[in-house]
Amino acid sequence: MQIAAFIVRRAVHSVVVLLGLSMVIFVISRILPGDPARVAAGARAPDWVVDNLREQMHLNDPLPVQYVYWLRDAVQGDLGLSLVTRRNVAQDILELFPATFELALYAGVMMAILGVGLGAVSARHKDRWLDNLVRVLSYMGVVTPSFVWAILFLLVFGFTLGWLPTLGRLTEGLQPPPRITGLYTVDALLTGRVEVFWDALQHIVSPALALAMGSIAQQARITRSAMADNLGKDYIAALRALGVPERVVMNRFLLKPSLIPTVSILGLDFAATMSNAFLVELIFNWPGISRYGINAMLRKDLNAIAGVILVLGVVFIVANILVDMAVAYLDPRIRLRTARGR
Amino acid sequence: MDRPTPLLQIHDLRLQYRVYGGALQVLDGVHLHVHVGEKVGLVGETGCGKTSTMKAVLRVLPMPPAQITGGSIRFKGQEILAMDPRTLQQVRGRGISMIFQDPTAALNPVFTVGQQLEAVLRSHWGRRADRGEIRAAALAALEEVALADPDRLLDAYPVQLSGGMRQRICIAMALATKPELLIADEPGTALDVTIQDQVLRLLHNLVEERNTSVILISHSLGIVRQLTDRVYVMYAGTMVESAPTRKLFTHPGHPYTQQLMEVVPRLSGGGIAPGIPGRIPDYLDPPTGCRFHPRCPHAMEICRREKPPAFSLDQDHQVACFLYDPAQGSPAP
Ligand SMILES: Nc1ncnc2c1ncn2[C@@H]1O[C@H](COP(=O)(O)OP(=O)(O)OP(=O)(O)O)[C@@H](O)[C@H]1O
Ligand code: SF4
Ligand SMILES: [Mg+2]
Q: What top-level class would CATH report for the domain A99-290?
């Protein structure tokens, strides 16, 4: 009941944010130089065609009216045509989004497990060689951009060692699994096609890890410092002093409070991964939405830009809600405050 | 007079905190012992190292920065500082347990009272106990410290409770393991005076009932006077005087103790020392010889050079001060 109230409040909040976001997107797409009707009709179309089109697209109406039309279409899944692909932007997004989402999902899992794991190891061996090693690696992880990792993994795992495939989501010739979620590994499992699952998994490891590296390093640093801080707290000393085994103190009573800062940042990192994936998608020839978005920007494909921003905005909002829920789960102080209606 | 091995014996304990810019030489040869059934007080102004000493006993000092550089701590004759983790875990809780100074800091904010209390109980009952039994024991522990509605309390988080309740819960946790020796670090100091009184009375009754040995840490001579058999006075990481409680109040030997007595109005339970001239020395560069010499009205030449050993005024009355050195020949004040 506490949680339900929390979700409702966050949902209302999100709708407001989304509306705001849509207005910004709309205004930007109308303020930018260039006549959408002319763009849609093509450079060589006669003027009267463009005029007709302008009327059809409600471009002669005042801006607020245009916004309402635009919003109505957007809600119905009509984001307009992409100049580049000449298809409905919504259709493009539907096709490309799952690829990037799957990538980000695996990257997110790696961030959580490797980041927190390394941080915990580091904290437990504080100031000894293992800790120092992790810290040096973290600095490297933080300062190295993901495309460098991508190229490195491609060269090392893909070519030199030959362990992992280099390009795309699946080996060429392999039939993608029937589309259920659009995530190849998930769909393959759902339809029981183990060899496809295995192939897709091998394809996703390198790009996901490349995307995750920076955040893994960041999580490790945050987790380490949170655990090291909390290790000196009296509530840890008190349990130890009363004979609670070291293992329980560490894995339960130290870990949970130390995860709070990590979780908050993890969620945002996950969302950011989706928009920052374009170079990695380019390098691994990954048919994702991030690459599509950058292409759209380079070619001033306004409808596509608006669509991508909208979708990524939604991802950010949802990630935020999930983060808030996770933090509320971990930290009763926040949960109790929310329940009291604050 | 031959007495049996003390329950706890701290001998010449030295401890430092490594910090940026050097090492804080906090404990400089601390001695203390507690016999079975004894209630011992430990008094000294803030920062003199009372908590550090007791955390060292249970080996729960944050390391780093803390570092024990010498001395020994024996529990029933066994060296705690050299104990393997298994034996140490046996001593913690069942042998010695501790009520920490600040109940708010001593309770984990993201776990319920029950989760913490039950973790303590479970570690002592091991696999023998099932959930129901542990829960029942937890309820009983809370009832013992006179907390109403224990069922609801077990599911509450520390933030939902008042300071007095948190203090009682910390007491309940420390007693739930049925310790032979209880260390109580300034219980109730964080609370207002009436509640502090209730808490102290409760604690007193509980340890009387079980005949638990106690080390009671306090700022306040008044509290120690009512509740203990013997008192240690600590100054800047050294033990300056120890005596039976009555004797300490009637014949304080150490100049520092004497000043404490003058500063604290005899009957009130008020805090220590706003009136003692000077301040606690800097642990990065502590005074040579007797650490009290910069503030001592009787300081002599030797006090600056040498650390005073403990001189016996009586069988049971020790003072670490050269005024009581027969070789110095000067009369005690
Ligand atoms: N973790 C730490 N790092 C550095 N210095 C510390 C640490 N803990 C304690 N100290 C220092 O050690 C000295 C003794 O501290 P301690 O807490 O033992 O004193 P105390 O007698 O219990 O004081 P109080 O009456 O205020 O509780 C203080 O000067 C304090 O600053
Ligand atoms: S040893 Fe010297 S300085 Fe220290 S208390 Fe005694 S007289 Fe004062
Ligand atoms: Mg203290």
A: mainly alpha
